Amino acid sequence: MTRNNTISDLIVMTRQTNRAIYTVYGISDMGTIVLENLHITGQVSIRWVRKSSTTLGK
After folding, report:
1. Comparing 3-7, 13-17, 38-42, 52-56, which segment has the lowest mean pLDDT?
2. What's the CA angle centered on 10, arms 23 and 24, to 5 degrees?
């Protein structure tokens, strides 16, 4: 995903060690991301950088 995305009403299946849904790293403004009514096998990876920092947020 990049910025301003909605993912809803989906079944996403991959190996449990793989990412099923993930954000692109390094975008300064992710806008709004909505995840709703999902059935996922695999990993979901949402990464962000704080505005005042260049390191990954916790």
Report:
1. 52-56
2. 5
4's CB contacts (< 8 A; 6+ apart) are: 31, 32, 33
Domain ranges for the chain: 5-45
pLDDT, residue 49, reads 64
Nearest 5°: CA angle at 7, between 55 and 12? 95
Q: What is the pTM of this model?
A: 0.69
Per-residue buried b or exposed e for 17-34, using 16+ beta carbons within 10 Å of the residue's own CB? eeebbebeeeeeebeebe
